């Protein structure tokens, strides 16, 4: 295989940042695209190198390495984190292995990027935060991969809220609607089993919207009142290998769905703003409808991931005769991340969030500062999810978020 | 020139339906337009006559009678319901007087149309239902004015759900977003005082969306978990007369807001579907955003009152390559109410709902059958609102709807 | 009960404006709704009275009078214009009779409102302008019914252009897309015969967009280059009566379509702005898509009749990071015509344009000033249409508009 | 520098396809991203290698090579095409050099990909076609880079038209609206000088929409009637280097704009369908609004590049009550190119068109068949543009396209 530092690096004199990635399914492909592209588009202080990729199936991981451009392949994550030529471990596995890998990687002296949700339980997440704090004293950094903070439109929304453009916050409403479970014959993949996924829509989609809403609002939730539901409780067992969102048709028996299909909750922010959240995989026709709206005393912002190059903004201080929600095409050079890309109107796609995530992480590591969102941020989201589950079990009673 | 029954009536031989209306503000103007127009557009078995209008201020009510075309004016609603030339009493006053007027009008032998919400309390609404049941034995009919059932697009949505087009229901999400209270200096109108309005966004907007969601879904809510908030607790007292949504600037002191500014709740339907509701007057830039979406196993429907001539429909049984939410322009002759109006694409407006409401009521009276929604339907909505308030007071605990 | 002048009039002391209308099909119904409603909603200096309606079929016109609320019915338009109790003649017939009726009505001392297009030829239109000029010396006024100037959103667009908000004009693009001829079996109604309709899409739809574009832009076209097409040249003869846009299925032979199905043209304004126009009845799925966009040096405006309560506005002087096309919901009290209607967000419909047209005409008559658009404006549109036809016949060569 | 064939290739056993690219501005960056990514996402029969990049400024081209991952850099395109390690020459320079480079590259035995427009004149394009035909006999292939055929939504539109889903074509309307010249102080870049750019909006934007409209419609234009305009005839000279769409503020004199600012034309297709086209850089607020609509007897399709993951489709054979333009989110696995990307709803961006273009070209080269669009297709577009200019000079007279 190749001399990765030569072919992948932008300039020879820049120090490399050698990445070792665990997992090569949907997230692995997306992260690979991010690492491969970031140094070609952004000016970076370090040169990302796709050093090694890890997966349990030797043939499959070697094929993935070839496909995605990783210099080496491993079949044991312990071997990966032991490699001298890896500076950063990027964890793209299901949530049940995040804690073990992340803690070990930090112990092995690596920086860590861990996919969301941080863990499958608050306890695991707390372990990870402790490990990250200890590692930080040694100069290692850890970040959780809430990539939707890196959509230019959501980053712009955050900036506008921070600038005070919508004023005192009153309402936040967020949904994350998908529909890939609406067919009762869709098989029982790992995402539908609590032991692997931790929870269902809640951890997969709900974690995203909790993080994103808090990030854009600039404050963390105080408490929630929740309702969850599993519409289809028994599903065919998958007949073969199932990865990511895809699945093969079943041949054989059925198994029990042990996670939620949908989660709804209302919430309060410390500032007095109130919020509603919905995560579901049963919203027929909605493919990736992460929708966020914030209403403040002086304005409003709205975003829809299905139209990710746009941000809606209502300036409430304008004269009523000319006011209205405007569709900002978030492709101008002074929009977040956009100075490195194409001319106005030439939109970006989903995978660019991973390029931007890589960019921000490389800068943080170079500067030795904590990247955002931190493992502590990931833990806090985990606590919100735990409060949601607790409230749902207790007749939706309002449940404060632990701090 | 013609006698009024000739110029106002469609055909001389049709028996009149003589209407007496109480109230002449926003709802009075809208109902007047409905009664004045309905016989000009639809073929009706009876001829609506704008017989008399009633309001406490003599000069104002006479001006309203002239403006809106009512033949006579009264200043005491008791006198109005005592008139021999009134067959139907149309109640357009604030909610605190609904019960008394409606019960008396039914006792006086009149049909009754009562604006929503039916009453300010469950107890009042129960009295009204009892009065309506007794009156019905005498052939009098009573209806509550949830006019948004009469938007052609919502009526079409109801028809499509009833036809089974979206299949088993999974999700309902409804918001009713306005923004006219976002300015803390907006004065304390009657709509912000519990003794007149019963509740705030909940009774005003929430009542609409509870009724509409249940109507389109074809089932009634089982229980709710709710959170309410009053963002601005003290407001300037109005300096002069305040009617409807308008208000003059205050000159003087301030008063306490005694109703909710916003109400959020999640809910369950007996079928297993789950729902979320939000009513607010603080959604900056949203003027009349009653938005309804239903997701079923085979399809979805979505509606937005700010674009009331449209219904979004996703047919989940189509091949994925060509499927998508379609924008049905609800202006075709085979859409509800549309055969009487204009060619395709020539849209209707808000006030047409009152024309359609009048049409449906005239037919029901002529045929001697219960118009929908009945007072019992109005009571059931009241019970949902009561459960919302109860849940909000009890830390959002899930609260079944009384039956 | 009241005398009609009381029930129909807003205030007894106001002088009446007695209307006699010729025609009772689609336009007749729309104008009736306008005259019936205008005095109920707007404060008018005169009280419109629906005095008499005229149509050739005695039974049908009497039914229309009853339906729409006209006090008397005539079967000969000469009798109608001879009536003493008619102050204004409202002409809602097909274009081939406009000139004769309008000239006679003006000669009979009446004010005249004439539906668009003003006439079927430039010559007829010139006769009408001469008659109107003569009549104006006697205090009679004449107006042509380009009702789309009276959509609040288009009136707002005009106001914003006049205020200089979009700056120097560069581009105008307008389409009027319908689809009711897309089926080759749709029968040969009067609108498809040159002798009745003058032209096809061009006179029906093209006249609207020429007038509207010039009105909003604030200048008149200098010349055009055009292409017209008749896609389906032979159609079934209608088997029975055909009115408006509707038609019965044919039983019998076929006949020749003698008008254009579609007309496309580019144009120049004297200011240097350039424009494109398209009128068609073959745009499958487009029901009433009158779309107008203006791009100026400092901003842009866009309108779509299928969403008539909205105006899109881009303020080009804003910082790029927050700029975007905003959707103005044209329902605020300071929007044109809106102070008389409903609260913000409660939209209007197609027919309201006729209410507004009646309002503006009543005021102009009361004040003795020329209402807009005048017959001269109608003639100018006719000259544009003639230039379009001339250019289309001459290989699309650029053809100046006669002045 | 690196051993490019090892690190960039997907599998060692695949034969490489070694690319040499001329130009490194906007198009160079986009093509680089395409070549770098295509083998990571798609299964290709050959392995693209970024062998060498060429530009006149030595330091700049070496920086570009590093940035974009090209193994070598040249400052003379003649040296580039002479390299043994280049199989394919990718021409990303302004139009005035296309013919010379392409003809020489073909003579040197290379495959060629040439950016659009193919050339600055019909004569140059004809030379290129001849060279391509000769080269094809030797097994070399040539393609012109109309990348907008490779948006999944436009490719889907083409497929649906070819499947007969919209039936007999009646209307095509296309615009390509940008606004980067609206400021009269924007400097005189190479794109505004005829000697470099050939034409203005016409060649830059008009070439795209002519090709795209013909591709989706499946037929070539018969003739056009055109109007062009240069709104701002004198502009500041750029004070420094100007690349792509960007420009520095001027310091110094002004120069004459020698190309069109906008071009409007109507057109006829041989099938009888009629079309309208507009290309402009003065549509304030429109950043990249390439909008295409086709109306057929049985349906319609509409696309907007500013929302490139969506295709609007109206199925005219559906019952009217449920018909409407549907928004197909073109992100399903059975949509063109999508099986290699992300799950449904996870949209793509502008640059993906270059990945898809590279994919299609690699397959065509591997299979030894002519890639589409060919140089002959590019010549035909050039002939349309020439007819547009000829018509515009001749008072818009209808001008047939030479064949």
From TrEMBL, chains A, B, C, D:
Q: Which Gene3D superfamilies match?
A: Dihydrodipicolinate Reductase, domain 2, NAD(P)-binding Rossmann-like Domain
**Where does the GFO/IDH/MocA-like oxidoreductase domain lie?**
156-301
- InterPro entries, alphabetically? Gfo/Idh/MocA-like_OxRdtase_N, Gfo/Idh/MocA_oxidrdct_glycsds, GFO_IDH_MocA-like_dom, NAD(P)-bd_dom_sf
Alphabetic keyword roster: Oxidoreductase
What Pfam families does this protein's entry cite?
Answer: GFO_IDH_MocA, GFO_IDH_MocA_C3
Q: Which residues form the Gfo/Idh/MocA-like oxidoreductase N-terminal domain?
A: 17-138
What's the name of the protein?
A: Gfo/Idh/MocA family oxidoreductase
Please name the source species: Streptomyces fuscus
């Amino acid at each position: 295989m190749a001399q990765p530092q030569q072919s992948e690096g932008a300039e020879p004199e820049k120090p490399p940042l050698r990445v070792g990635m665990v997992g090569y399914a949907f997230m692995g492909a997306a992260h690979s695209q991010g690492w491969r592209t970031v140094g070609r588009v952004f000016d970076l202080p370090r040169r990302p190198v796709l050093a090694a990729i890890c997966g349990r199936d030797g043939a499959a991981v070697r094929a993935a390495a070839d496909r995605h451009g990783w210099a080496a392949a491993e079949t044991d994550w312990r071997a990966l984190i032991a490699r001298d030529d890896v500076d950063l471990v990027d964890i793209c596995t299901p949530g049940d292995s995040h804690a073990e890998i992340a803690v070990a990687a930090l112990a092995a002296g690596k920086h860590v990027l861990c996919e969301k949700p941080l863990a499958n339980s608050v306890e695991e997440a707390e372990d990870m935060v402790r490990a990250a704090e200890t590692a930080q004293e040694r100069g290692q950094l850890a970040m959780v991969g809430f990539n939707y903070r890196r959509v230019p439109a959501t980053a712009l929304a955050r900036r506008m809220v921070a600038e005070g453009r919508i004023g005192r916050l009153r309402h936040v409403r967020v949904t994350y609607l998908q529909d890939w479970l609406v067919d009762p014959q869709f098989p029982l993949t790992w995402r539908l089993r609590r032991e692997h996924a931790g929870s269902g829509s809640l951890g997969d989609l709900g974690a995203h919207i909790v993080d994103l809403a808090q990030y854009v609002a600039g404050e963390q939730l105080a408490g929630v009142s929740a309702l969850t539901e599993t519409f289809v409780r028994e599903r065919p067992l998958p007949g073969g290998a199932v990865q990511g969102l895809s699945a093969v048709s079943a041949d054989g028996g059925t198994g029990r769905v042990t996670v939620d299909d949908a989660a709804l909750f209302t919430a309060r922010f410390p500032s007095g703003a109130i919020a509603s959240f919905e995560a579901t995989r049963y919203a027929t026709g909605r493919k990736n409808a992460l929708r966020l709206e914030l209403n403040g005393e002086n304005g409003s912002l709205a975003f829809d991931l299905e139209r990710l190059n746009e941000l809606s903004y209502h300036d409430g201080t304008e004269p009523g005769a000319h006011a209205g929600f405007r569709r900002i095409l978030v492709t101008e050079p002074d929009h977040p991340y956009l100075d490195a890309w194409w001319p106005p109107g030439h939109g970006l796609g989903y995978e660019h969030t991973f390029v931007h995530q890589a960019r921000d992480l490389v800068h943080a590591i170079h500067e030795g500062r904590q990247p955002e969102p931190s493992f502590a941020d990931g833990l806090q989201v985990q606590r919100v999810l735990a409060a949601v589950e607790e409230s749902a079990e207790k007749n939706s009673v309002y449940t404060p978020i632990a701090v």
